[in-house]
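Support request from a user on the community tier.

User writes: "When I paste my structure tokens into the form, the page sometimes reloads and wipes my input. The last time it worked, I copied everything first. Here is what I submitted, just in case something in the input itself triggers the reload:"
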């Protein structure tokens, strides 16, 4: 990284960076890996709730715009990585005004405050309607849920930022501070409680470990990459296939899976195939994006 105006004596950054949503899955991995993959010595995770003594965090409600502005002006961060969001789709459908406040207005406020520094924004593969799959960055978005709509709207504000990096992330797996941030954690919780999980055989994603997502972010930031990138694993899998892979790893829980089809589903809108083509990101990275099955095999060996 360039040292002009960014580092103090001895190569230590003189100003912090902000990582919002540090209590979440991706945010916590970013905070934990900042010193491993990047040159930042002052990393501050922004959390709304939760006691996280092991991570350098401050509590700040991102929809309290005046408080965010005061703290931003006081700390003067030199980079913002915005992971925080109201991301549970059913909650967004039920509380659409709150979802827009949290996902759109809070993002716009942060992006405006960070107009003179790099701004990294996490979007989602759900910005697409899932009718074709293998989406590239220039494909037309067509959100079919409130959560996805808020992300598309927020992308518009972020894209006007002169130094933006938008990452449309696929399903992320791994350990989170609360124990329920990863889709794999949520499945295990259901099985531990003796509940069966309903998984569709015709709903496709490209799952990726949050640890890999964090490594990608730090590499792109170090290379000062800008623009919109897709970020998922190198394997298209159905929800059912993902569940079977996870079930095989924890037979002691006696995991129960009920296979189903989106054709029979009558709930909130779900796109059938939002698999991502990540060739653009892969061409920039120094390491291959992994297949989810390969990552799981490696996890099994390590444990």
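"...and here is what came back when it finally went through:"
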């Amino acid at each position: 990284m360039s040292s002009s105006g960014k580092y103090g004596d001895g190569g230590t950054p003189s100003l912090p960076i902000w990582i919002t949503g540090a209590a979440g899955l991706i945010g916590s991995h970013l905070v934990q890996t900042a010193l491993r993959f990047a040159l930042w010595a002052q990393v501050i995770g922004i959390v709304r709730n939760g006691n996280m003594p092991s991570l350098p965090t401050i509590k700040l409600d991102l929809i309290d715009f005046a408080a965010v502005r005061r703290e931003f002006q006081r700390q003067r961060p030199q980079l913002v990585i915005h992971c925080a969001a109201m991301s549970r789709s059913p909650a967004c459908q039920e509380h659409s005004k709150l979802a827009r406040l949290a996902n759109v207005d809070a993002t716009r406020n942060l992006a405006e405050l960070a107009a003179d520094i790099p701004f990294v924004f996490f979007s989602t593969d759900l910005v697409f309607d899932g009718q074709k799959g293998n989406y590239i960055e220039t494909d037309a978005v067509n959100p079919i849920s409130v959560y996805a709509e808020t992300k598309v709207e927020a992308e518009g504000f972020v894209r006007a930022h002169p130094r933006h990096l938008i990452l449309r992330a696929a399903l992320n797996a791994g350990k989170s501070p609360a124990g329920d941030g990863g889709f794999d954690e949520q499945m295990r919780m259901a099985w531990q409680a003796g509940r069966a999980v309903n998984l569709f055989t015709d709903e496709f994603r490209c799952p990726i470990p949050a640890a890999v997502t964090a490594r990608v972010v730090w590499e792109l930031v170090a290379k000062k990459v800008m623009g919109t990138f897709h970020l998922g694993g190198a394997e298209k899998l159905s929800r059912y296939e993902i569940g079977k892979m996870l079930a095989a790893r924890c037979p002691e829980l006696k995991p129960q899976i009920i296979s189903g089809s989106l054709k029979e589903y009558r709930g909130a809108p779900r796109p059938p195939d939002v698999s991502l083509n990540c060739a653009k990101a892969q061409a920039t990275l120094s390491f291959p994006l992994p297949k989810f099955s390969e990552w799981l095999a490696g996890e099994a060996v390590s444990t």
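Agent notes: The reload is a front-end session timeout and is unrelated to the input. The longest helix spans residues 96-113. The longest strand covers residues 119-124. Escalated to web team.
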